[in-house]
Write a structure and sequence with these properties.
It contains eight helices and 15 strands. The chain is an alpha/beta fold and 335 residues long. Helix 6 links the parallel strand 12 and strand 13.
Amino acid sequence: MTLHNQTFRCYLVDKHDEKIVASIVDRDLHDLPAGEVTISVRYSAINYKDALAATGHPGVALQLPLVPGIDAVGTIFESSSADFKTGQRIIVKGADFGTRTFGGWSDCIRVPSEWCYAIPNGLDELQAVTLGTAGFTAAQCVDQLIKHGIEPDSGPIVVSGSTGGVGILAVMILAKLGYQVVASTGKEHQLSWLKEHGASDVISRSDLDDRSKRPLLSSRWAGAVDTVGGNTLSTILRQTRLSGCVTACGLVAGSELDMTVFPFILRGVTLQGIDSGNTTRQASERIWNLLANEFKTDSPQNLATIINLEQVPQAVSDVLAGNVSGRMVIALNNG
């Protein structure tokens, strides 16, 4: 970003002649949306949701033109809010950020102050963005398991989609807290990588894809973090033990849930939905503090593959094809 001439660089998605076009462009600071806080972005990230936005997916890119990126970490250089001051390091988290209003794939952003959170002590900027929405969601899932009485000695916790951002961070947090973590993946070559990050066992995703339509399956799990949805979620619920808890935060395998109520009324299983976009400020600050303290894992930034804006198109393709493990971080402003 070059403040002296009031311009910034961003990755812009727009529609021309009914075709979605993405390009790196220079924009004027006056093009930024309204907000009390203007931030020099050091890092953003590529989540699956961002990759969809980068293709103009109508369910995610809610208006065009759009700068994707639901994660951003940086430093305030202008603020009209009494709660935030120039020079403060900030995490941005807002329900419309990167979907309805310009997001983090930009040298500069302007956002409402209610979307801003001070980076908690214990996290640097790279750690904070590597966690990002994925880590926040993973922490919410683990927090709910704990609230529902699932303890380390309750039994194994299965994590689906375990090589993705939410999945691997859930594996790491659960392992840090002493849980027996079973990671599910379709990437056989990542078995050792998952065990290095805390999985006590690794199973194939086909083990969580029972098509028999049986209302109940053999009990296996005390709890689960499901990032996949569809029949994977149905299978996990039918495999969950008495009084177990399954947290659900994804739908890459589908939004339908084709099953009976038997796991809920015969085994007392809880299905806990996770919504990371609409949490209260108090709840959000609590989760960030957990990530910086009790839930803090060793070197979360080691999960990050760091790229620049020019490398984003290939990275988007890799994310959509399921060829990325861990977190994809975009460096901006000397990140």
